[in-house]
């Protein structure tokens, strides 16, 4: 029985998705810890989830939901929480009067901006043992994987 278990673990350790997920969780733990230690007024989850709103003006909740890959209920709760914190405001969408556009507040823009150097510093830790060519090759590989997976998602 022990031999079968070891073979199963060996197979699981070679699965790309499992390896990437494990690595991302480790990276995320370091980011979360850094945000907590630096008392930035915003947590890492909020920081990363706000990126689409900061990169594209006036997203609707539906568009935001699609970009984050989260269901409507989760997004509604998230937005309500952010409204209470003063991070976002809902504004009637100009193109579709049935929809709300999400607008980041000055407060969250400042918090996000103040936290960005922490993310950049931690990113340097992620990259520190990689040569320039290793990093470039890794980024190219990630782009290929994303392209392949996105193609599968839409087929």
CATH architecture, by name, is Orthogonal Bundle
Radius of gyration: 19 Å
- According to DSSP, the number of beta strands is 2
Distance between the termini: 40 Å
Helix percentage: over 70%
Summarize the model shown:
The chain has 155 residues and is mainly alpha-helical. The chain has seven helices and two strands, in the order H-H-H-H-H-E-E-H-H. The protein has a single domain (2-154), classed as Arc Repressor Mutant, subunit A (Orthogonal Bundle).
Report on this model:
- With about 160 residues, the protein is mostly helical.
- The protein has seven helices and two strands, in the order αααααββαα.
- The protein has a two-stranded antiparallel ribbon.
- A hairpin with a 7-residue loop joins β1 and β2.
- The longest helix is centred in the first third of the chain and has 23 residues.
- It is globular, with a radius of gyration of 19 Å.
- The model has no long low-confidence stretch (mean pLDDT about 90).
List keywords for this structure.
single chain, 155 residues, mainly alpha, Arc Repressor Mutant, subunit A, 7 helices, 74% helix
Secondary-structure blueprint:
Elements lengths: L1 H13 L1 H23 L5 H12 L5 H8 L3 H14 L2 E5 L7 E5 L1 H22 L4 H23 L1
Helix pairs in contact: 2-6, 4-5
């Amino acid at each position: 029985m022990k031999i079968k278990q070891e073979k199963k673990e060996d197979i699981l350790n070679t699965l790309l998705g499992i390896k990437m997920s494990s690595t991302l969780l480790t990276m995320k733990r370091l980011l979360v810890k850094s945000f907590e230690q630096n008392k930035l007024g915003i947590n890492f989850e909020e920081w990363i989830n706000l990126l689409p709103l900061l990169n594209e003006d006036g997203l609707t909740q539906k568009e935001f939901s699609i970009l984050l890959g989260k269901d409507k209920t989760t997004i509604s709760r998230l937005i309500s929480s952010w409204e209470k914190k003063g991070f976002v405001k809902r504004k009637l969408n100009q193109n579709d009067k049935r929809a709300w556009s999400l607008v980041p507040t000055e407060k969250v823009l400042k918090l996000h901006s103040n936290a960005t150097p922490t993310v950049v510093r931690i990113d340097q830790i992620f990259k520190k043992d990689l040569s320039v060519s290793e990093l470039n090759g890794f980024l190219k590989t990630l782009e290929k994987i994303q392209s392949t997976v996105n193609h599968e998602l839409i087929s």
